[in-house]
Amino acid sequence: MSGILYTRWLRVKKDWKSLTLWLILPFLLTFLTTILVGIWSEDSKIPIGIVVEEESELSNQLIETLKGVSYLDVKLLNEREALNELEKHELDSVFVLNNRYEEMIIDGKRNGLVESYSSNRSYAHFAVKELITSFVQGDVSRMRAAYEVRDLYFEYGTNEEWNWEEIVEASMEMQSSQELLQTNFSYQNQSVEVTDDELLPVFNTWGIWAFFSLISTFFIFDWMIKENRPELHIRWFFTSTNFKKFASISFVFYTVIMFIVDGVTVYLLSKLLQQPFTIDLWISILFYKLAIHLFAFLFVNLFKQSLMYYVSSIGVTLALTLLGGAIIPIDGLLKEWSWVENLSPITSLLHEEIPYGWLLVLMMLFCIWYWKGDKLHA
């Protein structure tokens, strides 16, 4: 074994530049991609202008709600400035809050609360208008509900003190705690099992890293093609070690090196990008790397030419990434065909689970590869 490790080390010293590049590339590309996606998401926000003719508690509340919408860039301006920027197409649309905004809402009036302006280049005016309308209608409905409660107090002659502000606040708390658009319905006498599905975010950081880590693993394992060239087969006749033993020990050698580098990479990404890092995540990353190392090792044995291997590796990487939901969420697909999540080890990584199925199949294939075939040694 020492001789194999020494031979492997000599090879690494010769190809250290390319090996180092592929080892650090997942970290660099994941970091840069995440930063660029963050910059793009900031630049892609819809710029809207809000004009507040008279500041009030409800108008401030509406503005804070709009600022909390991730895809809106809210600018507070006076009417003249807002319309001027709209004419110069620096704003998508402008919304003016009535100077009696709070008073009208408390009175339960729906019309004339907000006035909107758009230009011939406003691409999101209708959508934003509907969004603001929904927020305003929510306030109006809340006020009407408060008055209905007051009337019930008076109708039934209760002795409890009616507090309008407490009722409004309680309704807001109930609204924020209820997922009204994810309510589960069932027919009478039929039970429904309710599960909390975790929705994977688009451009998940660990999904991006899984993609680049997978493709770098494929390119690192091209040593199998280089070491298994036909003109080199003759050397195994003059040694006490066959090629499969040499390849297996080399596999362990590269796996240990990549585990160390990946551990540092994951730690740096979690710190620099402020990503949550748990023991479950680390365990899932560890077994994910083991699975893709085995997969790359077995996959490379199918090829004799490097070019075909590289092209096929890129195609397989894209397929596994898409099936794993690393780039595009596949929650809708999983509801129809739940078995799809077993087609990629990336799915297990994103759910912080161990890809048991992949590991079992790959270990069986590895054993078959090792014990079946030629025995070229003296």
Structure description:
The chain has 378 residues and is mainly alpha-helical. It is 61% helix and 6% strand. It has helices at residues 2-14, 16-43, 57-67, 79-87, 101-106, 125-155, 164-177, 205-220, 223-227, 243-272, 279-300, 306-324, 331-336, 345-350, 356-371; strands at residues 46-52, 72-76, 93-97, 114-118. It has a 4-stranded mixed β-sheet, sandwiched between helices. Helix 3 (57-67) links the parallel strand 1 and strand 2. The longest helix has 31 residues, at 125-155. The chain starts with a helix and ends in a 7-residue tail after the last helix. The model is unreliable at 175-202 (pLDDT under 50).
Attribute tags:
4 strands, 61% helix, mainly alpha, four-stranded mixed β-sheet, 378 residues
Structure, briefly:
With 378 residues, the protein is mainly alpha-helical. It is 61% helix and 6% strand.
- SS strand fraction: 5-15%
Structure classification: mainly alpha
Compute the gyration radius: what is it? 31 Å
Net shape: elongated
Would you list the SSEs in sequence order as H and E? HHEHEHEHEHHHHHHHHHH
Number of helices: 15
Strand runs, count: 4
How far from one another are the termini?
Answer: 16 Å
Q: Reading side by side through the largest sheet, how are the strands ordered?
A: 2-1-3-4
Assign a percent range to the helix content.
55-70%
Give the integer mean of the pLDDT values: 76
Sheet with the most strands, sense and barrel status = 4 strands, mixed
Q: Point out poorly predicted stretches.
A: 175-202
